[in-house]
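Both lines are given unchanged directly below:

***
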Amino acid sequence: MQVHDLTSLTGRRVADKRTVTVRTFDVNRRLFVVTLCSLPVAIGTAALLWPLLREYSVLAGMGVLACGVYLFTTRTKDGYRRAHVRFAARNARGGTFTGGSFYIGHVPVDPLRSELGLVMANTVPNPFLQTGTEPVDALFD
């Protein structure tokens, strides 16, 4: 039986070393994808600033592109990507999507509520909760 260390093949740092070939050039895969995704934002920024800055708006577009590459490719000291840390911190404050609320079965639930509530109905009928005119003692005869 042989044991192999797969950390060198599947570890976090290995994903940073993956490359893709573009026109006979080997390019870092993450850098390539982030650049492609940031490019429309950079072009849009340059187009919006063109009436004000003319040729210098290209520098603003390059700055936006550089910020996108910096946020999505570099890591913090803890090893997390910078953009993921920012999104996680914003979600922890309740700034996006659910607004800091919890959902169970598409029903908003307040975790700080002190009273009891019914989340889901019981599947077995409970004779004590029925509101018929028949007395409860008659059920046990």
About this structure: The radius of gyration is 28 Å. Residues 29-53 form the longest helix (25 residues).
